Amino acid sequence: MKLFLRHAIPGIIFFTGQMLILYAVLWLYDLYRPAAFFYIVLLNSIGLLIYLSYRFFSMLPLLRRMQQPVQSVAEPIRSDSEEPISVAVEQFLERQQTLFRNSLFAERRKEKERHRYVDQWIHQMKTPLSVIELILEHPGEHYQADLRQEVDRLRSGLDQMLYSSRLEAIETDLKAEQLSLKPLITGIINQEKRLFVKNQVFPKLDIAEDMYVYTDAKWFRFLVLQLVTNAIKYTTGHGREVVLKAEEINGQVVLSIRDDGVGIPRRDVPRVFNAFFTGENGRRYGESTGMGLYFVQQVSMKLGHEIELESEEGIGTTCRIRLVGGRAHD
Question: The Histidine kinase domain covers which part of the protein (predicted)?
Answer without folding.
Answer: 120-327
